[in-house]
Write a structure and sequence with these properties.
The protein is built from 12 helices and 7 strands. With about 290 residues, the protein is mainly alpha-helical. The strands form 3 sheets. Strands 3-5-4 form a 3-stranded antiparallel beta sheet. Strands 1-2 form a two-stranded antiparallel sheet. A two-stranded antiparallel sheet has the order 6-7. The radius of gyration is 36 Å and the shape is elongated. The relative contact order is 0.10.
């Protein structure tokens, strides 16, 4: 997974550029500097959901549920600075999908992110969770609302749709590519480019409340393997006959032995407060059912 989001030289990474730049005119230092106007864009996932899932996996590998220090993440990704745009854009994209949350020097998986990594109820639940993550992007959710269960428009028309959703012109191609890659990863875009998101997907709150992972499915902690909990067993009794009945322990008892029809001895217990006549009577009754 590290290779997928390392500091590679892929075309998308090479396309990370500042929207506004400065340059001199005719190479003359005396000429004024011209600055291009910056076109504002709404928040959108620069990287696909697949790439953000891989990023989430690295965060959890380093720090588990409690999160990882940014310095450790940068080291794992072979990135030198937190100002690196690949790191920044992966983080912001993952936040849009609801996979991670960031504090000053810590990035930690969200509850949704943990459940996607370790779905308690298997792959079917994982797909439902990924769909919810996909639709956490407001831009993607708007496209789903308009085109679900229909064939997506061609790329040029889709760029226009994204433009109307206030995506800046200079990043339209990247935004469209990430949308298509994410939809394919989640499994909601078929070979005919038909967008198919089930209408009966449970709400996120319901998915998050479908129970915690069982001990055998609990996510392993970093740098170690979770040991399944073993149920405690009661120690074996050395001699069951030595254990006194609850009733017997509360009342003084008188015991006497009788022979059963099989020749075995049985112990009869009676409260000590019984009269001698009662005890003898019980003995006669019991002996009457004993061996001939």
């Amino acid at each position: 997974m590290t290779e997928d989001i390392g500091n590679s030289n892929g075309s998308k990474d090479e396309g990370i550029k500042e929207a506004g730049t400065t340059k001199s005119v005719n190479g003359d230092a005396k000429n004024p500097v011209i600055k291009k106007s910056r076109e504002k864009s709404v928040k959108y996932p620069y990287y696909s959901l697949k790439e953000c899932f891989n990023y989430l996996s690295i965060v959890h590998k380093i720090g588990g549920r409690k999160g990882a220090q940014i310095g450790s993440i940068l080291s794992e990704m072979n990135i030198n600075s937190a100002n690196n745009r690949r790191f920044s854009y992966l983080t912001s994209s993952s936040e849009i999908f609801g996979l991670i949350e960031r504090s000053d020097q810590l990035i930690k998986p969200t509850e949704l992110g943990i459940l996607i990594l370790f779905p308690p109820n298997g792959d079917s639940q994982k797909k439902q969770l990924l769909i919810q993550s996909f639709e956490n992007s407001e831009v993607y959710s708007n496209i789903v609302t308009k085109y679900n269960e229909t064939i997506l428009p061609n790329r040029d028309l889709l760029r226009i749709e994204f433009y109307h959703l206030k995506i800046a012109t200079n990043v339209l191609d990247i935004a469209v590519d990430s949308f298509i890659e994410s939809a394919q990863y989640v499994g909601v875009l078929d070979e005919n480019s038909r967008l198919l998101i089930p209408t009966n997907v449970p709400e996120l709150e319901d998915l998050l409340g479908q129970g915690k992972p069982s001990p055998e499915n609990s996510p392993p902690e970093p740098n170690g393997q979770k040991i399944p909990k073993v149920a405690k067993e009661n120690p074996p009794k050395e001699n069951p006959s030595d254990e006194k009945d609850d009733f017997e322990g509360k009342i003084d008892m008188v015991r006497f032995e009788v022979l059963t029809s099989t020749g075995l001895k049985a112990i009869v217990c009676m409260p000590s407060k019984c009269s001698k006549e009662d005890i003898e009577k019980i003995k006669k009754i019991v002996n009457a059912y004993g061996p001939d």
